[in-house]
Amino acid sequence: HDDGYLEVIGFTMTSLAALQVGGHGERLTQCREVVLTTSKAIPVQVDGEPCKLAASRIRIALRNQATMVQKAKRRSAAPLHSDQQPVPEQLRIQVSRVSMHDYEALHYDKEQLKEASVPLGTVVVPGDSDLELCRAHIERLQQEPDGAGAKSPTCQKLSPKWCFLDATTASRFYRIDRAQEHLNYVTEIAQDEIYILDPELLGASARPDLPTPTSPLPTSPCSPTPRSLQGDAAPPQGEELIEAAKRNDFCKLQELHRAGGDLMHRDEQSRTLLHHAVSTGSKDVVRYLLDHAPPEILDAVEENGETCLHQAAALGQRTICHYIVEAGASLMKTDQQGDTPRQRAEKAQDTELAAYLENRQHYQMIQREDQETAV
């Protein structure tokens, strides 16, 4: 109704979340002009583009009306249009998972990636389920001793870092951020089969034609150093650790660490072991350092102000970037040129990696703002 007034609607955190399930805010008043005064920088969207707005005075006034295209609701309670198919009460969907190695190599080829996927089991979900609800069903697959998950050809459990893959809306697969799962319905990303990306899925178990070990996987492929050889020897020098990281010698690095080596050692250019591991592309060494080194290593900078994430982004190492981001590295730190990791990925012309880092950076900003508000 064009009465020349603006509607002012108020939301609590609860009612804002309830929008996804048909909730609504509280109508406060009508007015011809709104003035918002902020006292600190906050994340905002301007014409759909996210940015961080400094403390400012924002004036909002009615200019005109525009015709909008509204997406039809997929909920079963919504009225159906003549050309819209009814949503089934239940969906029975096959779940298959993809390793990070296969995803990086084949994500531009849907058919090959589907062939490389590993069946995990079958889930039955309501027809109007979003991905958050579907996630809960998938995670229960391997917890059911007599369920579909027990028949999975791989005994390796899902890692806590898995995410959904959209296999229908584009010409290739792409990842769906976990923070956006409540915005996507199962029927929007899958038909008869849903695909998930498990970054910790082992290559050996990712091929059904290869034998799966019946014994538990060892914690590392390296043999432990005998205690009799360790004795009371002096801790290894930092140069030995750096050399092991440079040579991608995972076993040697692990041996030196067990002998008392300092994983926070730096070379003359202030480069950490993690910097060297990233430069050689050693995923095993990177994961070992992330698991065993102090968290300060994530945002440690070398002489030119680069963190290990800057370096990985510039080299287009998507898997390593994923490991470092999930470990908690800052995506907002800048190097001496003022570039964030996302901007380094853009300069390397890796648009998909840049989009992933931008998404995680935006999510990190929101989390930080929430923490400041809570304090």
Automatic annotation (TrEMBL):
Compositionally biased tracts (Pro residues): 210-224
InterPro entries: Ankyrin_rpt (IPR002110), Ankyrin_rpt-contain_sf (IPR036770), DGK (IPR037607), DGKI-like_dom (IPR056383), Diacylglycerol_kin_accessory (IPR000756), NAD/diacylglycerol_kinase_sf (IPR016064)
Origin: domain of life: Eukaryota
Positions of the UniProt region annotated as Disordered: 206-235
Any one of the GO BP annotations: phospholipase C-activating G protein-coupled receptor signaling pathway
Keywords associated with the record: ANK repeat, ATP-binding, Kinase, Nucleotide-binding, Transferase
One MF annotation (Gene Ontology) recorded for this entry: ATP-dependent diacylglycerol kinase activity
Entry-linked SMART domains: ANK
Protein name in UniProt: DGKZ protein
Domain Diacylglycerol kinase accessory as annotated: residue spans: 1-50
Domain Diacylglycerol kinase iota-like: 89-198
